[in-house]
Amino acid sequence: MRSSNPVFSRRGFSRDNGYAQFHAAQQPQAGGPAVGTQANPYGQAPAGNPYAQNPYAQQDQYGAPQAPATTGRMTMDDVVMRTATTLGVLIVTAALAWALLPVDDANITRSYGIAIGAGLVAMVLGFVQAFKRKASPALILGYAALEGVFLGVVSSVVDNRIAEGAAMQAVLGTMATAAAVLIAYKAGWIRVNRRFYGFVMAAAMGFILLMAVNLLFAVFGGGDGLGFRSGGLGILFGVVGILLGACFLALDFKQVEDGIAYGAPKEEAWLAAFGLTMTLVWIYMEFLRILAILQGND
Questions:
Q1: Phi, psi (degrees; rounded to nearest 5) at 149
Q2: Which of 145, 152, 205, 273 could make an S-S bridge to 98, C-beta 3.0–4.6 Å?
Q3: Rounded to whole angstroms, how far apart are CA atoms 185 and 80?
Q4: At residue 39, does pLDDT exceed 50?
């Protein structure tokens, strides 16, 4: 719940490790021009960074840089299709889990057990893909299918036992957030750069650490731990979680845009689908949690 791989440190569309490397300006070489004095000769650079080093530039037999191949490159259509496929698998399995794993008093324990097992395996698959250098459609679709089972049962529990209609409201909230971030990003209201990336990563690490501490207190001390997931604090942290998810969506959009501009290989569209799906799941879960708190307190 990675605008980055793994979860909050995704490589982006680069053969190197690290977002900073992907977006770093070309470093001066001995006897060469200073940074920013030579435009990227290997194809279009991302907007706002005309001197960025292209991570997909190849070398010929003499060691001279060449532009990426003009065929087999990732396009926006590729990203849209892979993302639609991944989300489609998740939605179908979520619907099946909702229908086939009832959460009434007689079956809720079994349904919960299956959902938790599916969620844990999905997390493992997600981390395996996150640490792989190449996209694996099988891993990504497997993650989506199992994550869908988990979301289907959890959504059914919240919708049927805590807050009626919460699942659809969370879906609408997630869609509205994604649309708002996309509009703000395309309009230039959100500027994704190193400073933005560093701030988001630091905030996300702090958020996850607090949630982990809260979970430990809940497991060993009972109740809701430190209270970060209930009451007023729960709502506050839910809003913070949604805002973090929105920031990671902006990072996702930037990585897709840069990957297309740099000529990323077509198969890396699956990485875009993977990252976008994980971010949307994160936002959906935070919306669902807030609605459960609000309506559960009525």
A1: -60, -45
A2: 152
A3: 17
A4: no
